[in-house]
TrEMBL record:
Domain HTH myb-type, chain residue ranges per copy: 8-64, 65-115
Assigned GO CC terms: nucleus
The entry's keywords: DNA-binding, Nucleus, Repeat
A GO MF term: DNA binding
UniProt record, GO biological process: response to auxin
InterPro entries tied to this protein: Homeodomain-like_sf, Myb_dom, Myb_TF_plants, SANT/Myb
Source organism superkingdom: Eukaryota
Major location category of this protein: nucleus
Identification of the protein by name: Uncharacterized protein
Compartments (UniProt record): Nucleus
Myb-like domain segment(s): 8-60, 61-111
Length: 324
DNA sequence: AAGTTGAGCAACCGCACGGAA
DNA sequence: TTTCCGTGCGGTTGCTCAACT
């Protein structure tokens, strides 16, 4: 017997409009993520449940950072891809802020090509992570090294998940991730998550206000406005560091009020907001959103600095070979 | 200025898995 | 044990836009 189709006929497809985003976010804020099957009916969205979940996890979920991958992140992705293969969700769990879809896209459109290029000739800045060009090793050595790396990763994870170690590893001058984790610990999980979610949607709407549907009517559809808002959102990283983006005064006020009523969210002033407040991995934020089971250790509490250090330590690769 | 091409990215599709009944 | 349901995941598609001719 076949499965029921996940989507009814007549569901809307294609890019999400800001209005739909608002509906979804406000619903999730009220009910929490999960039970996606009921989301379309409860919200009145003409969207497939999968589509709602995807939209939430890849775009509206709190703590998402978009575009502008750092060199550090690049290296981590390359390392992790070499270790884990195309297990993007697993890779994403090691990269706070990033979604598996984002990483997958980045890999497929950029990193893979760069690696292929560097492998097929000239030396590259990235290509020699596991490339024999700079570290001439045989296939067998490479496999051994990979196995060692996996073992080290396991060891690091085991150590990381040990509660005692975790405390000692959180040094005052630890990286921002650890700091963020600390802030998460000390904050009511749901509130910070949803505030951040509202933050996301508010940013999106700010972009939308710049290019409202009627204004963007040169192409006369809401898709364009959505894409514009996507683009504006994608530029948040730089925009937030350079200053608050300008918005039409009237529209801004109106939307501030809208947001106050919608989310109970006071401020649209991003200059006062730390960027995407919670630094959570995919799994971590899922944990955050769903529920926190007392006494359990989530990956959110993992000392990423340790893993990052290991993942980013290029020199270790060469050193590992000497172990054999 | 108009057409073409390629990169980037959001979203869709289908399969797999785990839990509940 | 089997079936069904909800969800997660990875591959792929299709749209948009910028660069190039």
């Amino acid at each position: 017997m076949g499965r029921l189709p996940c989507c009814d006929k007549g569901v809307k497809k294609g890019p999400w409009t800001p209005e739909e985003d608002i509906i979804l976010v406000s619903y999730i804020q009220e009910h929490g993520p999960g039970n996606w099957r009921t989301v379309p009916t409860n919200t009145g969205l003409c969207r497939c449940s999968k589509s709602c979940r995807l939209r939430w996890t890849n775009y509206l979920r709190p703590g998402i950072k978009r575009g502008n991958f750092t060199k550090q992140e690049e290296k981590m992705i390359i390392h992790l891809q070499a270790l884990l293969g195309n297990r993007w969700a697993a890779i994403a769990s090691y990269l706070p802020h990033r979604t598996d879809n984002d990483i997958k896209n980045y890999w497929n459109t950029y990193l893979k090509k760069r690696l292929e290029k560097s492998e097929s000739g000239s030396e590259g800045t990235l290509g020699n992570v596991y490339n024999s060009a700079s570290n001439p090793v045989t296939k067998g050595q490479w496999e051994k090294r990979l196995q060692t790396d996996i073992n080290m990763a396991k060891k690091a994870l085991t150590e990381a998940l040990s509660p005692k170690k975790m405390l000692s590893l959180h040094e005052p001058n630890d990286d921002s991730i650890s700091n963020d984790i600390g802030s998460i610990k000390s904050t009511t999980p749901n509130s910070i998550c949803y505030a951040s979610s509202a933050d996301n949607i508010a940013r999106l709407l700010k972009g939308w206000m710049k290019n409202p549907p009627n204004k963007a009517s040169s192409k006369s559809n809401s898709i364009v406005s959505t894409q514009n808002s996507f683009n504006n959102l994608a530029g948040i990283d730089t925009a937030s560091s350079e200053g608050t983006p300008s918005v039409g005064a009237k529209g801004s006020v109106e939307f501030s009020e809208t947001f106050k009523s919608l989310f109970g969210y006071e401020s649209l002033d991003y200059s006062s907001n730390s960027e995407f407040s919670p630094s959570l991995s995919h799994e971590a934020s899922t944990l955050c959103q769903d529920e926190r089971k007392p006494g359990t250790t989530s990956i959110a509490e993992m000392p990423f600095s340790l893993l990052e250090k290991w993942l980013l330590d290029d020199t270790k690769i060469g050193a590992d070979a000497t172990l054999f």
